[in-house]
Amino acid sequence: MPVQLLKIIKGKPETQLPSHLQREELKHLQIGLDHTNKYFQGIVILSYPLTKLGDGTDFFKIVLQDDTCSRINSLNILIYGKMAEDCAKLIRNGDIFVVAGFKVAESPTAREDGRHACHLQVSEEAGSAIYICTQPSVTPFSGTTSASVAPKYVYTPLNCLKDGTVVNLYGIVKFFKPPYISKGTDYCSVVTLVDQSNVKLTCTLFNGNLDSLPKIYKNGDIVRFHRVKIREYNGQMQGITSAGFASLTFDGTVGAPVVPRASSKVYTFIDEEQKTVEELRVWAASNLSVSGPEAKLSDVKPMMFFDLTCQLVGKAKVDGSSFLLKVWDGTKCPYPTWKVPVETKELEGDKVLLHHLRNLTVDVLVYDNHVHLAKSLKIGSFLRIYSIHTKQASAKNEDISSHIEFHLHGGTCYGRGIGILPENNPDVEELKTFLECVELTDSQNMENMSSSELGDAFDNNADLESPLQRCQQLSATVLTDHQDMSNTTLKTVLNSRAPQQFRIKAKLRSFKPQKLYQSVKLHCSKCNTLQEVPNGDAFDSILQGCEATAPNPELQSMSWYESVMWTTGDENQRKITIHFVKHYEMLQRPENTLLMIEVLIWKRLERLLLQGKGGTLKEIWKLTRRFKCVIPVKSKEDNLELLDLSAPFLLQGNIKYYGCKKCSTPKSIKNLSSLAEKREPSWEPTEIAQVLGIEPLQYVFVMKFTLLDGTGALNAYLFDYEKFFQIPASEILTNSFLQQKMEMTMNTLSPPGRKLDDLPWLECFIKSYNIADGMKHQVYYQIFDTTVAEDVV
């Protein structure tokens, strides 16, 4: 039986391996050596999903770690055929894996993944045999595997990190940003570590699962990271997540229990590592000042930034860009606090309890990227809110001026964010004990209060004018940064010298162009020029102007691409050639494939591809819907080359990508082979442009807004790729839904036929700058760090 499952009894497998087999050490695995009658043994630390190769063969990849203390102690195992299917069903991380009858081959990913320079190829056809010693059951308390099979990991000090390696490490958290949603769909967390070498390492960690990121609650926590990839950037080492990344986090307090907070259900943690944690705690206590700006509500003052550990007792939506959290920590703020006016029906939480705690709770207004998490919080949960800002309210009457407001501004600067603490967190246990001892007032008649009376108690807040209403009332836009800047009137802006930045509140009287599709331009970030987007007829004319050079047979099916040629059945007998770029000498699935098409155009518009009676450019767009990328090329004497840069250098989906004629220096099309050699080619337009020497043009919205606020009027330019409308400028020209969405947005910002008083307010950041016009300097204004509110879009 090629794959055998063995049980471990008293630390030894119940069935012995064949006596003729001898163990091979990792350092002796080399191409060309005789490994007959040898076996390799290691512990499974990572496995990939079972997949099928292009010919239908099952393929399964695992990573083994041996017990050597060398810098590189992990190895890729590639399993093919029936053995791959069997192993995928049986193998779990932590299992002991033994393989004999293997083939040693060069690993093309060694530099990228930091593992051994060779990998082992295993299949039933090659006479391989696999023995799997199943992992002992997981201990219920810690989740760690038994020390008898725990792999001996090697941990790299922060002063010994090298570019391109994948390492395991320990460190003390000196700074961190709580997980937040990145620009894509993943969560992101940023952590800066330090160890006894006094070297710092900043790690940027991504994962689609929030629970798979490190569970860090405060500076001074100690973390263990497995499989962190090291990259050098601007002379400094940085860490990023790699396949199989896992973490443990420990309280950094000297003497606290060493209880790991794990990012995975199964992990190893041995006695020797407990000593490592304790040593780091002692070193940090005497060498680092890692305590954060924590404070209780009883300690706050105006213009503070602090971290608050608290319990959530109420929450409510305020508007499209902000959300209310009602929290308490058992202490009373020494200042009157701002109560955010919300409708009773919007407020979640036990209204009896909220009224009971009305003198001890504070209203924290969270903005922008924090709103998504705030909405999902459960009433009663314990939180640590990082970098809350307290500021004095400015109001029209003296009674309100002494109130304090609590804000969690948008962005992640200074570690802003919200952390959810578990019930067994030491700080939570301490807080719960304290809250149980708090004496509450005005509670004796609560049981007799009717729901209408409770509603009146909350609605009485409505006569308190809030800063949100004062500054953002009816605002259809959201500020994405610089929340601390005060509003400036347009009159003051117009009378100020340039360059400067301002926060304004104004109404949109008019905008240009009225035909919104005309607002999309192509921009070169290098030479800062704008140009119109060529239409379809322009592309046709470019193709018609191509030299009618027949495909060069010597350029067919090179080492990195495979070519297919058709001869059309019409009277012209045209030859059509498509080149499919290969990955590891294999063709990929269409959705992962880049292809190059040779375009031949005669005096009349050439009919392209596959059938002599087919369509014209529509056929190219059919290819872009089926394949990842299409690059139009033409044959020269000894190479394929791009068309003139008046044509797009790349077609992807419905988007045409253009290059700047002035700033581009086109390189050989052969350079695409370097991308094809990557482990997982992404075929991203920016990467393709870089290897081909193209300076890509970016689609951008360019509009002129006429803004007024009662003190003056000015023209401000919008120059935006996708942030303001939350619509990519690259997609607007080919997507009718997005066109309708943009038109509806502009009709909301500047409703046609409405009086000025009925227009919504827009809160914007604008910056002034000078443009030399002959001997004169003209001042212009541009909108930045502003986006359309969620409920408007």
From TrEMBL:
SMART domains found in the cross-reference section: Telo_bind (SM00976)
Stored SUPFAM superfamilies: Nucleic acid-binding proteins (SSF50249)
Keywords noted in UniProt: Chromosome, DNA-binding, Nucleus, Telomere
Pfam families: POT1, POT1_C_insert, POT1PC
Record-level GO BP terms: establishment of protein localization to telomere; negative regulation of telomere maintenance via telomerase; positive regulation of DNA strand elongation; positive regulation of telomere maintenance via telomerase; positive regulation of telomeric D-loop disassembly; regulation of double-strand break repair via nonhomologous end joining; telomere assembly; telomere capping
Broad class of where this protein is predominantly found: nucleus
Gene3D superfamilies, per the entry: Nucleic acid-binding proteins (2.40.50.140)
Keyword Cytoplasm set for record: no
Sample GO molecular function, one term: G-rich strand telomeric DNA binding
Domain (Telomeric single stranded DNA binding POT1/Cdc13): residue spans on this chain: 155-285
Top-level taxon of origin: Eukaryota
Keyword Nucleus: yes
One of the record's GO cellular component terms: shelterin complex
InterPro entries: NA-bd_OB-fold, POT1, POT1_C_insert, POT1PC, Telomer_end-bd_POT1/Cdc13
Location in or out of the cell: Chromosome, Telomere; Nucleus
Family: Belongs to the telombin family.
Protein name: Protection of telomeres protein 1
